[in-house]
Write the structure tokens for this entry.
Amino acid sequence: MTKVLVLGAGLVSRPLVHYLLKKQYQLTIATRTVSKAEELIRGFPNGRAVAWVVDDLIKLEQMVRDHDLSVSLLPAPLHPVVAEMCIRHRKHMVTTSYVSPKMREMDKPAQDAGVVLLNEIGVDPGIDHMSAMRIIHDVQKRGGRVVSFRSYCGGLPAPEANNNPWGYKFSWSPRGVCTAGKNPAKFLEYKKLVEIPGPELFTCNHPLPVEGVGTLEAYPNRDSLGYLDIYGLKDIDTMFRGTLRYAGWCACLKKVVDFGCLDETPVTYPVGTTFSKWTAGLMKSSSTDRLREQVARHLKSEVSANYLDRWEWLGLFSNDPLPITSTTTTALDELAQRMEKKMVYAPSERDMIALVHHFEAEVGGQREKIVSSLVDYGIPHGDSSMARTVSLPAAIGVDLILSGRFVKPGVHIPVMPELYNPVLDELANLQIRCQEKTRKL
């Protein structure tokens, strides 16, 4: 029986695990909290759970060597470590994360070893690439060219579950969400290069109507220019990739950034430190009296400002104890853990993935607008939409590789027809599909 190693048993892992177990792969889940893995494989005789911590590289290498393919659901910096072991033992690898420079350097070694290292096979990145490339290639087949491409994606509470002041709940790593708020951005707007420094990311936002949802808030996502070559759009006028949130997110997160809540400087807080003391400390204040007013003055805003309502609801002015004390931590980790505690889905609540592409293309002398949209909802008391849309594409990618339907070695993302067509077709069978509308301009 073909053996698959899954590294990690976090929030998005269950749909991937169940898809592969039902395909009769022999699956091993390695994770620090083995009880999570045991719950995932309950009822499947071809599943196995093992305890493993990420710094045990000897055990990691043994596990990689003993399986035909490894799926890394670990933090992004660990993917190259797994990839190096896969190349050394001539084993394949799949991950949903962005291709890092270090991963890109492994393309030639992976080719030489006959190993597939498939990356960016989730939702964003992943389904966004695949649905975009299917449209781009269709325009090119019709003798046309894409002149403008704007792509947006966000994981959000479904409208009926949007019931906290932040307009957000976590269906994946809170730390990952917070860290993404520090990334600089770069995009092309009517042939003009626009660069946004990390601290100013949230000042660059605009409203975006999404059919069936309403108007959301969009802001740029990382370096859009890196996809000009990948998508074959070198002569395009506009290239923008963005993130979607409910209204007010950007204004609030800009204040979070300005206040230093995303700082990753190591610090140790004494036992008994409260959030009010933590907040006061971030602005070098020794007093917690009238803390909301202090913060308003520090950030030069009205004391009635909406972002302060959000902070107060989260408990940043409260006497609740910090989640991490007496050990080295960071301001970002304290904030992320508080968010994880407060901004959670109830079992009956649904999350939502909204993915929207806006194309303008010239075909036969006629300009046309193409809108592709995917609005997918989680299953109450079941899998979240984030889990399904992140991990099911990866699971299908695993099956394509191990069944011999994709065998091209090297570092890949799913922008070629032999990857995106079978993955999108299978996702449609699983009720995850994009709807397209075209109109003449």
Remarks:
- The chain has a mean pLDDT of 95.
